[in-house]
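HOLO CASE FILE
Compound: zinc ion
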Amino acid sequence: MTIYLLVFLIGLVFGSFLNVLIHRLPLAISLFKPLGSSCPYCNNQIKWYENIPILSYLFLKGKCSNCSESISIIYPIVEIITAIVTLLVYMNFWLNWEMILTIALFYTLIVLSFIDLKYKAVPDYLLIIVVVITIILGNFINILIFCGGFVLLEFALTFYIQNVKAKITKNKELENQRALGEGDMPIAGVIGGLLGIHLGISAIFLAALLALLPSIYNLFSKKEIETAFIPFLSLGLFITFITEFNIFLWFY
Ligand SMILES: [Zn+2]
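Model generated. Tokens follow.
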């Protein structure tokens, strides 16, 4: 039991590091200079005791100790997600090289997901990292099949949006809109390579179902046209990876 708690705490610390990556990679800020973090509003150096995962957020009541601007709730959320992922992968594999690679894969997916949520675009080298790890851990042919399948899917959906939906809704903007993001295709490859054909299709279907809720919300609130899909693909992959739950068997 103590070991699980320890793994969870280590996960929280890594989550704190992933926050640094999520914040700095898209802005091309060095990861090591400056070593410490600072408040994005007043640039005040954050002291080590203000940088303890979860606890500091609670103690500071989500506000900077210097300027009282609120600290994004995303920080503790990333820490908790990272800790849960670390614990579940550890329980699945115990300590071996497969576990380390799998954790590296899911950590990279967490970083990709939160960058995608914020910018609706992701750095290519992070996509290359997850694909390379999947080539080592999984099945290369299945990666290719899923990438190819996703290109066809994107082609069909984009054709529908640009030629059918654009005419029905008389929305000129749609004529140049693509259905899926560029980053989604390699993630689909990762899903296929890691889970195989049947579970892989189930995971993507699950991701689409999960993505439906915010898409409907966006449609009615008219706030954003695009929904970041990488977080849902990653969630679908993780749930299916851990539970081996096949949504199609469930329907019968
Ligand atoms: Zn501040």
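CASE NOTES: The pocket of zinc ion is lined by residues 39, 41-42, 44, 64, 66-67, 69 (CB under 6 Å). The mean pLDDT is 90.
CLOSED: yes
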